[in-house]
Design a protein that fits this description.
The complex is a heterodimer of chains A (227) and B (292). Chain A is of the alpha+beta class. Chain A has nine helices and five strands, in the order ααααααββαββααβ. Chain A has a domain of 101 residues: Alpha-Beta Complex (Outer Surface Protein A, domain 3). By secondary structure, chain B is an alpha/beta fold. In chain B, 38% of the residues lie in helices and 19% in strands. In chain B, the strands form three sheets. An eight-stranded parallel barrel of chain B has the order 1-2-3-4-7-8-9-12, surrounded by four helices. A two-stranded antiparallel sheet of chain B has the order 5-6. Chain B has a two-stranded antiparallel ribbon with strand order 10-11. Classes of the chains: A alpha+beta (227), B alpha/beta (292). The interface between A and B is large, with 43 and 52 residues.
Chain lengths: 227, 292
């Protein structure tokens, strides 16, 4: 007879791996319905709601590669990195990292960046917005995320949600430096110019910046805020 | 710490409520339907901000709230996660709910979270674990908790207590109350082959602080066997309504919640189910009155 801790370890390993851990079968009461069939319910209960909740966070990834591909990829992602905490609002952050080295997605090289972008949107939709300060010192908005993509990332995202027609976008259109920012209770997305990108980088490194036009542009977008 | 389990929202003689879903936030705010309370899953409100909180702050001004946890893992042999307790307390302090509840289940092991409510063997060892964890949770929150009976698809050879004996013993040792999920009793009883009616009769009325009702699915397996899955994705089954009637008839009116977490229906359909629960409380408790 296993201790409670041993029993829970065996069940957790079985749910994660799919195959029943040796010795567990004797711990589970089997009537007409065998232990494996009973455990299968918990295996399904673990994977399917997780995959469904991730699909809701990454609709544009799914729009680009289709539901079947996405569900398979998500199943592999869940095996690669199962949740470690009950607060699942943090789960899915590393889907982009996973897709970056997921061989079946090799022909869709921008998928990883799209996942990062969608995660940034989701994450910023769930944080408290900082109130503007009276101090006239400008700083990068803490609720902003920057993605330097080798692809026209924002354009691709807009194709995925129908804001641009697919014919208008080609992946050879080049890189985009995309900012996702929470400002005025709205999450907004911008493809920044090269000058804006340089100023953002300078702010990140604490350098003094005196390009008034670019500072005004970034302030208007809510990317630079008074702190 | 208050010893009151049984709450009655003011003005609600037959207190039925619904599980709050994001799809219904705006409509509930606009229509303000006649509901005794709303129930939220604590884990959905552990972020610092966003639209969910903005809506809930408005709704909490209109309706009493019940905070229902799904991830505390009260049955974990390794104890409770301090981080999760802190986050849970954050939700409780932010919204000051009327009720707080969790499950007789486990979901964390070895630093992993299983995203499901897994059953325990019911014996002295597991009782000691749950008692310790329940005491930790109640002490940390400074509140009494209602514990919900789980739906189960398997049992263990090391079990030597019935679930009702386990729950009553747990309540005696920790002072917690019981959230009696009638659908879970039905699903587990049918899946495990024990008497649903006996289970309900064995629960002392004084322990029941809330009742849950939900839909489930009957799944046919390849070999002709059946299993009932507690998926909260349909209307409450007639058999469960019948059990609810008998229960209210025996124990009296209790705050009763309709849970519907998958295949989310229209608000009207959900309100219809809550209305049925209220009507059954009326007739089963013999408190029927009408205007001509």
């Amino acid at each position: 007879m296993l201790s409670l801790a041993e029993l829970q370890r065996s069940i957790r390993k079985t749910i994660h791996a799919g195959d029943m851990v040796e010795g567990l079968e004797h711990e589970i009461v089997s009537t007409e319905l065998a232990a494996a069939a009973r455990l299968q319910v918990y295996q399904n209960n673990f994977r399917e709601p997780l995959a469904q909740s991730l699909l809701e966070v990454f609709p544009i990834v799914a729009a680009f590669v289709g539901g079947v591909f996405t569900r398979t990829a998500l199943r592999h992602f869940i095996e690669w990195e199962p949740p470690i905490e009950p607060c699942l609002s943090n789960y899915g952050k590393r889907l982009g990292v996973f897709l970056g080295s997921y061989a079946p997605a090799d022909s869709v090289p921008y998928l990883s960046d799209l996942a990062d972008l969608e995660w940034a949107i989701y994450e910023l939709q769930h944080v408290a917005e900082q109130a503007p300060a009276d101090e006239p010192v400008l700083a990068l908005n803490k609720n902003s995320v920057f993605i330097a993509s080798k692809f026209p990332l924002l354009n691709l995202w807009m194709v995925g949600n129908g804001q641009l027609r697919a014919e208008a976008v080609h992946i050879d259109q080049g890189e985009q430096f995309v900012c996702i920012v929470l400002s005025g209770m709205r999450v907004q997305l911008f493809a920044l110019s090269q000058k804006e990108q340089i100023v953002v980088t300078d702010f990140k490194h604490g350098k003094l910046v005196d390009d008034a036009d670019v500072i005004r542009s970034l302030s208007d977008k809510g990317i630079l805020v008074k702190r | 710490m208050s010893n009151q389990y049984i709450f009655t929202p003011s003005g609600a003689a037959f207190p039925s409520g619904i599980g709050l879903k994001a799809q219904h936030y705006a409509e509930i705010l606009a229509r303000k339907p006649d509901l005794a309370f709303l129930e939220i899953h604590a884990e959905n409100f552990m972020s610092s901000g966003g639209a969910h909180h903005r809506y809930l702050e408005q709704l909490a001004d209109i309706y009493p709230l019940s905070v229902h946890g799904v991830g505390m893992s009260l049955g974990s042999a390794s104890g409770l996660s301090r981080t999760h307790l802190q986050r849970f307390k954050g939700v409780v302090e932010r919204y000051s709910p009327w009720l707080i509840s969790e499950h007789l289940a486990w979901s964390e092991e070895g630093g992993f979270y299983l995203n499901d409510l897994l059953p325990l063997p019911l014996n002295k060892e597991s009782l000691a674990v749950v008692v310790d964890n329940m005491n930790s949770m109640q002490d940390y929150l400074g509140r009494k908790i209602l514990i919900e009976n789980p739906s189960a698809y398997m049992a263990f050879s090391s079990t030597d207590m019935s679930e009702t004996e386990f729950l009553v013993e747990l309540a005696e040792q920790t002072g917690c109350g019981l959230l009696l999920d009638v659908n879970n009793v039905f699903v587990s009883g049918k899946n495990m082959g024990w008497s649903v009616e006996d289970y309900l009769k064995d629960i002392p009325a004084a322990l029941i602080g809330e009742i849950h009702l939900a839909g489930h699915t009957l799944k046919k397996l390849e070999d002709g066997l059946e299993i009932r899955i507690d998926d909260h994705g349909s209307r409450v089954a007639q058999s469960v309504w019948d059990l609810f009637f008998e229960l209210v008839n025996r124990v009296g009116v209790r705050p009763t919640l309709i849970e519907w977490d998958t295949n989310i229906p229209s608000l009207d359909e959900l309100l219809g189910e809550a209305g049925k629960a209220a009507d059954i409380m009326k007739t089963a408790s013999g408190k029927v009155g009408a205007n001509a």
